[in-house]
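batch_manifest entry 22 of 60
target: Cysteine-rich domain-containing protein
source organism: Pseudodesulfovibrio portus
requested by: lab member K.T.
priority: normal
notes from requester: please return tokens only, no post-processing; we will run our own comparison against the previous entry in this batch. if the run fails, retry once and flag.
--- input ---
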Amino acid sequence: MPEGKFCNKTPITTDEQLKATLNDKGGKQYYEEMNHLEVDSEKLWGTIQKTMKSRLKTWLEICAHCGLCAEPCFLYQVNGRVPEQVPSYKIQATLGQIVKKKGKVDNAFMQMCMETAWSKCTCCNRCGHYCPHGIDMGVMFSYLRGLLYGQGFVPWELKIGAGMHRVYRAQMDVTTEDWVETCEWMAEENEDEWPGLEIPVDKVGADIMYTCNAREPKHYPEDLAEAAILFHVAGENWTVPSEGWEQTSLSMFAGDWECCKDNVANVYAAIERLKPKRATGTECGHAHRATVIEGPYWMGREDGQPPVPFLHYVEWLAEALREGKIKIDPSKRIKEPVTLQDSCNYVRNQGLKDVTREIISYLVEPGYFVEMAPCKEHNYCCGGGGGFNGIGKYREQRNMALRKKMDQILDTGCKLVIAPCHNCWDAIRDLEEEYEIGIRWTFLKPLVIKMMEVPEHLLPKDE
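--- output ---
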């Protein structure tokens, strides 16, 4: 059967295709077409031969099937500890079989692989910390997702998400004009309370270039305003680019390898054009991973680094507090039990565990911060990472996945959770909506704004 109108092996590259696929509500026709999608075994095996390097081959071969990756997997824990949820089983039963059979697999097998890759793994990489051979299942599942995407077996929402990046250079339909107008709007909206507040666009030679998550200008423009307010109070010489402002990568979740590189190239082009001394991004874990950790390698940069030092937001904020650019009013420090969600992507995968706790030391009265158990690089995924939050087909599995984080939070006794990551914030919000455990959740920006001392010269003047 020919490829479907919506479900096919071709990426979405036009606004017309994007809108048509969006109008297939819930992917009803998309998934029906998937049932008839033929596997191009020759192309699949050819892709593996070209792209599977010695590291992945070695990992597949040296797995001792010891099971030490089982208990570290939160999905194994919340799903009755069945063998089918053991990370080594999941990868050997999918990628391992594709390789063993040299790509000669059928539609039903590929749909099983799709369900495994997107509903039984968030690529959180926790299991790799406990593997005696250092096998990184997150990398292996990311590779599997790429093979599946190339054959058209990808969840409807992520086919759309990667298409958004290709069409709009953002994970949502935010045009350059929309973005610039939002920057102007947020500056005007807050200028009475914050005299002199600006969101400079395309300023060359600034000390900081700021990038964000497209969900912010689309749905949470106040987050952009909060970032501007904190830069304003800190006295930063900063800018945002008119092009290359979007730091996230739903294409990384989808396995659209080509688009992953294009996303990073867009941000790096903005850096080359505006020549900032440094860059920083918003409170988003996967955006940082895509642009700063993985991005240099996708771009073929031999030093493995972005064009300029690129900080996660927690690094910039900790620095601003440490250097006294932002000062906290001691009387406004949090005086209730509060806990912290460690993002997999910048804590486990870049080691920023101590930076977040340095920020906590400024914001929380001593004795009120309660660590989750386990915490730091050993913390569990929020339950919504790797695209899991946004896939309707697997919502039931995602809601089950939230239970591990729910138990961790309940064990702390805290009602307030600080979550400096968009996916974590979303998952914890959904956790509360689903299980109603009576918690609140927040990013860092609004907390700091409520608690900081504002220099007199930045206060509104009396009429």
